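Supplementary Note 3. Input sequence used for the single-chain structure prediction.
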Amino acid sequence: MKSRSTLVRLLIISIASFGIMSITFLLMPLDIMLNIINSRLINIIIGIIFWLGLLIGTVSQLILSIKTKPMRKEGYRKPGLLAFFSNRLATAFDLIMIISLIGLAVSLIATNMVGYSCYVFLSLTVLSFVMHCIFNGQSYKLITGVKKEKNNERKDENE
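The predicted structure, written as C-alpha cells, is reproduced below.
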C-alpha cells in the first residue's frame, strides 16, 4: 500500500490544477476588458495555463487511481461521474454544479452570450463538475476514509 501522504499530495495537486484550469475561463475576456494591444500573447499564455492545468490534473488523477487500485474491494462501483451526494463535500459541489449550470443557461440567454457573467458561470460549472467527479470518486473515499453519510449515521444510532 502506498503511503497516505503521497496519495493526499496527489489529490491536492489534482484539485489545485483543476482549480487553476477553471480560473482561466475568468481570464479569457481580460484582453478585451483591459484594451490590451498585444492580446494574442495573453491569449496564448491563458491557453497554455489551461492545458497545463488540465494535463497535470488528469495525470495526477490517473496516478492516484493506479495507486489506490490495490486498496479497492472487488465488485462494481459507480464512477465519480455517475455518483451524486456521496459525502458532504461532494454534496456541496453537486449543488454548486446544478446551480451554476442553471446560472450559465440563464446567463447565456439573458446576455446573448456576451456578458462577463457567462464566463463566471462557465468557470463555476467546470470547477464544480471536476470537483463533483473527484469528491464522489472511489480514490477520494479510499484516501479520506469517507463513506456514504447515511451509513455512518445509522452506525452511530445503533451504538
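Helices lie at 4-27, 30-33, 39-68, 88-110, 116-135, 138-144, 149-158. Confidence is low (pLDDT under 50) at residues 151-159.
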